[in-house]
UniProtKB/TrEMBL annotation:
This is AAA+ ATPase domain-containing protein. Residues 108-226 form the AAA+ ATPase domain. InterPro entries: AAA+_ATPase, IstB_ATP-bd, P-loop_NTPase. PANTHER family: ATP-BINDING PROTEIN RV3427C IN INSERTION SEQUENCE-RELATED (PTHR30050:SF4), CHROMOSOMAL REPLICATION INITIATOR PROTEIN DNAA (PTHR30050). GO terms for biological process: DNA replication. Signal peptide: none annotated. GO terms for molecular function: ATP binding. Gene3D superfamilies: P-loop containing nucleotide triphosphate hydrolases. It comes from the Bacteria.
């Protein structure tokens, strides 16, 4: 029988913490009085547990951030500080939706390709997605494509940490440095791992889709064009740096 169902009575004492009356019930037959835990203690326990969970989550986020390979400069990139300009609105909204609904995107293994000129804001948007995904306690890693290709070249084609298993991989600016055979093979290998594992990848590039066929491996192009694997977002805004120069 639970304490609530037994007849409770006022013990005549009050809780030293909150002053509420302390109720007791007697253990049947033995008639030993047992005090019922005051609500203030239960509330305190719940608050402590909640705080413990929050600390645990914060620690997990710090851990994921440390493993993200994200350059410190990009850790402050969020959607809220993204400068909306003409030509960036649709990309910004789509990226934000992607980040907010990451659990569903991950389930489907759906990635993004952000296409735009240097300085158009594509790196900021990709970084903002990574930051948001980490806040949701998913693992995400961010690599400059050139850095990743150099790593693979120096390590017998091995891939750096997190490329295969992280919930999200960003490969930033892959077009600029993608033309050698070994780099093409590395990109294809990464895509194979990610796609086979149903793990989404976000690519940013300044190569427009109409040039992919002439500049990328044919299998890679097949993958990138597959609508069940990637959505292509074009950012048409000019470079921020150019715009600033023009307004000076
Ligand atoms: Zn109390």
């Amino acid at each position: 029988m639970s304490a609530e169902k037994m007849e409770k009575y006022d013990s005549g004492r009050v809780c030293p913490h909150c002053g509420r009356p302390i109720y007791c019930y007697d253990i049947p037959f033995f008639e030993i009085p047992v005090a019922i835990t005051c609500q203030c203690i239960l509330d305190q326990d719940a608050a402590t547990e909640k705080q413990r969970e929050a600390v645990k989550k914060q620690r997990r986020i710090e851990e994921l951030t440390a493993k993200s390979q994200m350059p410190p400069r990009l850790r402050a990139c969020t959607f809220d500080v993204f400068q909306r300009r003409e030509g960036t609105e649709k990309a910004m909204d789509t990226c934000r939706t992607y980040a907010d609904r990451f659990p569903e995107m991950r389930e489907k293994g759906l990635g993004l390709i952000l296409v735009g000129n240097t300085g158009s804001g594509k790196t900021h948007l990709a970084a903002a997605i990574v930051n948001s995904v980490i806040q949701q306690c998913y693992s995400a890693v961010f690599y400059k494509a050139a850095k990743l290709f150099d790593f693979a070249a120096e390590n017998h084609a091995a891939l750096p940490d997190g490329c295969e298993r992280s919930s999200l991989l960003v490969l930033d600016d892959f077009g600029a440095s993608n033309d050698t055979e070994s780099r093409k093979a590395t990109l294809q290998k990464i895509l194979d791992y990610r796609i086979d594992g149903m793990r989404p990848t976000i690519l940013t590039t300044n190569i427009p889709p109409k040039e992919w066929a002439s500049r990328l491996d044919v299998r890679t192009v097949d993958r990138l064009m597959d609508k069940s694997l990637f959505r292509v977002i074009s950012i048409t805004a000019p470079s921020m740096r150019q715009e600033r120069r023009r307004s000076e």
